[in-house]
Amino acid sequence: FEKAWLVLAQHYVEIGDIVGALEILEKAYHKFPDNPEVQSNLAWLLLETKGAHNRALSLAQAAYESDPDNVGFSDTLGWAYYHGGMYTKAIWILKEALSQSPDNGFVQFHLGMSYLGYGDLELADQLLAAASKSEEVALFRPQLDSGLAELADHRASAEGETLQSSDHQDLLAPPTIDTEDLLDLNDHLTR
Fold this sequence. Notes:
The chain is an all-alpha fold. It contains 9 helices and no strands.
């Protein structure tokens, strides 16, 4: 029965009714608070609507902890870390997700934006360019265009100086994931 709620929310997202999707997922969460797909999807929508970040992060962590190998849950948690300015944590978890699903446009986009937030313009550029060629790009094109514009602004202000990925040794170690420290829609990573 949970799946029906997720499918309905996905439909609302596809027709551009994000508020409707959020309402559906809130109801689903009320009925199924321990369902990791509902938790992850609700977290993602909260992040996309600039909703309660702390709640989104908590939901994303709960979903991730239920199945750390689920690319969607990892992506959502990484996106929550990004939105909280925790770029090192975002990069670490999103790199793991990308290693499991290297052609996933959402993960490429989220990791690219995380590198941009961290200041690694070279890796941000590579990942955002890859995301722009993904099958899923239509679902996040406005955000991608905004990210690419931000990248161009950073490049202009840095006068061509970019950070090299070898400068980021702290990204190699996994972060500590607190239970106090996210909602990918069910099908957005499986397309």
